[in-house]
Specification:
31% of the residues lie in helices and 22% in strands. It is an alpha/beta fold. It has a 10-stranded mixed beta sheet, sandwiched between helices. Strands 14, 16, 17 and 18 form a 4-stranded mixed beta sheet that branches. A two-stranded antiparallel ribbon has the order 3-4.
Length: 423
Amino acid sequence: MAVDLLLGLQWGDEGKGKIVDVLTSNYDIIARFQGGPNAGHTLEFDGIKHVLRTIPSGIFHEKSTNVIGNGVVIDPVVFIQELDGLKQFDLDIKSKLIISRKAHIILPTHRLLDAASEASKGKAKIGSTLKGIGPTYMDKTGRNGIRIGDLELDSWKEKYRALANKHEELISFHNVDIQYNLVEMEEEFFKAVELLKELTFIDSEEYLQKAQKNGKTILAEGAQGSLLDIDFGTYPFVTSSNTTAAGACTGLGVAPNQIGEVYGIFKAYTTRVGSGPFPTELFDEVGAEMAKVGHEFGAVTGRARRCGWLDLVALKYTCQVNGVTQLMMMKGDVLSGFDKLKICTSYEYKGEVINHLPYNIEPENVKPIYSEFECWKEDLTKMREPSQFPKELNDYIDFLEKELEIPIKVVSVGPDRTQTIHR
């Protein structure tokens, strides 16, 4: 059985958690392949809003097994807090949630390093969520990291101490005023680790290969968005892992020829959190209205999201990089009632018109060129069938399908499970 992928195609916050939740009934296994607890997947059903940080979005489905892959970085403290939040739902966590031994662990000093590094940058800061993600991936690539499998070794605390001491030296090197009490932080950390050790640790690549041979259906779930990919995103304003389709192969141990459908998720407009270039960003009342109606605040960080028109140049780019086979458009309901809609179809780049994403999209180099569309006035949130869509929405969708040459199979018209329309 092939492994299907679910990916965000913009700067994150596209609504992946909801779509995974909707699709989960079709899959036996949901596997998260990269990222850390800075990513919040929001699900809403039965009138309750759920925010997951590290745990895959299939956790609420009775028949699904949820795998945290080797490409993920785990903060035990945040993870246990997340588990505590699920207790009220009476889930059988120990049988439904398994963790790769090769996943790396975020230490308290990783978070401190993150804060010290960001503070030292001053106005040049990249907008880190300060969750320790970047420093943990740095230790991973620097071959210093501590992995989940290390927790099964008697000597893991000695390894921890050596790395934490090294981190404290690096913190002092940044020469910034970071106030912290490491003793208190470590007390909380070690307590969380002991609770974490009660879960099942696996060799995830072997587990998934056997599952495939046994005919199990698998959905790989990404975090963040493709434009935040460490290689193909808007560097350096990116995350520290591969958020694109290739990341699923390295983050789970799945061979490239085992990838099946690639579901790409995008908003009907564009948002971005933190620093970095954003060619279609709106600074007027239209952008403010998008943010207000769309409740554009980070599920984990609470940070306000910057809003702008849909960028088709960037969307084509991420569709190509990921090999997207099906598209899913989110938050179409947010745009209802605007006077006009715009889609960026090309860039004016250094005096010429281009249709691809260039190396540098800073505002001094790129000016978006727009096509204008009539906007629908109807409230989409009550609609449940494509036949109910207004003409203007169908025109918007048809234009995107023609330009991207990929079918838009799902249109989301609200946050609830039921507000998901299949075309």
